[in-house]
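Researcher: I've got a protein sequence and the SMILES for adenosine-5'-diphosphate. Could you write out the 3D structure of the bound complex as structure tokens? I'd like something to compare against our soaking experiments later this week.
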Amino acid sequence: MSEKSISECVVFHDEIVTMEVDFTDLTLSDSSTVDAFYDEIDRRLAASGRRWYFLVNYKGCVITPEAWPRFAERGKNTNIIHGLGTVRVGASSSTRDAIRSHSERAMFRSNIYDSRDQAMLALGELRKRHREAEGAAEGSFLRVENVGLHFGGVKAISGVSFEIRRGEISSIIGPNGAGKSSMLNVINGVYHPQEGTVTFLGKQRRRMHPHEAAAQGIARTFQNIALFKGMSVLDNLMTGRNLKMKCNFLQQALYWGPAQREELEHRAKIEEVIDYLEIEHIRKTPVGRLPYGLQKRVELGRALAAEPTLLLLDEPMAGMNVEEKQDMSRFILDVNDQFGTTILLIEHDMGVVMDISDFVVVLDHGQKIAEGTPDEVRSDPVVIRAYLGTAH
Ligand SMILES: Nc1ncnc2c1ncn2[C@@H]1O[C@H](COP(=O)(O)OP(=O)(O)O)[C@@H](O)[C@H]1O
Ligand SMILES: [Mg+2]
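Model: Sure. Here is the predicted complex with adenosine-5'-diphosphate in place.
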């Protein structure tokens, strides 16, 4: 395939922030053809200097089984780095099956539509959600002001301030012991700082209890997975709904009707999460028997079951291999895209952080040493010296 024919397959629609990729009647039969294609796409996306929605047309396109792994891998990378969301149209039934099976493994949404009109409508919905999230960003979402926290003589956090905007993905990075986990614990009310305040959705506080934070829409996952290992996936997910349960035990005994209706609502929400995370096949399995990566997914599911406004993730990719990390990245981006959930995560892998974050806060020895966009932070000499220069 010539360079020209590849570039002709890509059209940028500026006004709807969409890159349309036309695979019509194309046969992708080996890795080098796939690479030629994605090299061109990635080059043009990088040159644009921004993220795009993708509309991909598969009409008459054949991707051979040999080419699929490479195609899926390159597509996923492009999505992570440059994508705001993807819709697909015109796929044959075998291509649909392949997309679905890859999306299941890679945790992205398959978003396959029958017609271009339907796909355009779906894109419109995605854009609308983003716009709403942006509109709501006016007025402060989460503001941490001058927070100081110590344990006896150990100063875990000293005078740290930053602001998180609604609808964004923000990251806290920094070496071990920098105070990252402590900061999440302050935000969700587990630790009570001796100094400073946290303002969430207009409510300012010095101290709050974890159940109050949860009631305000803050959910989190932990650095060390905190699930009930002997309980099934389903029961663990149900614990994510606890806070939403209005009927207490006595009410359940006295007023059977309302309690039953409520139970049904919770079940429906849990089913949605199971479906979203594609963990149907393990719903009855005790969590302790699952491999590590799946346990991490279930823990995320439990946090999502609470329908959070702010999702705190403490090293969601620790201990994962490169592929699992990419999957988790994709998934975090999807939650952010599809539900507009604001996400604050701690992550050691700089590549991942830089790829998925809108905003980065850098802590070192309990102090904030930098903040900004990934590019700003990456090129900050103080950060390079304190963090990037050291091995992690
Ligand atoms: N519950 C606690 N009791 C005593 N010291 C703590 C506690 N939690 C955190 N620390 C201390 O606070 C500092 C920051 O820890 P942490 O927030 O876990 O850092 P990070 O998550 O960046 O690795 C460390 O010196 C740690 O030992
Ligand atoms: Mg930590």
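Model: The domain at 142-388 is CATH 3.40.50.300 (Rossmann fold). DSSP finds 15 helices and 17 strands in the chain.
Researcher: Great, I'll pass this along to the crystallography team.
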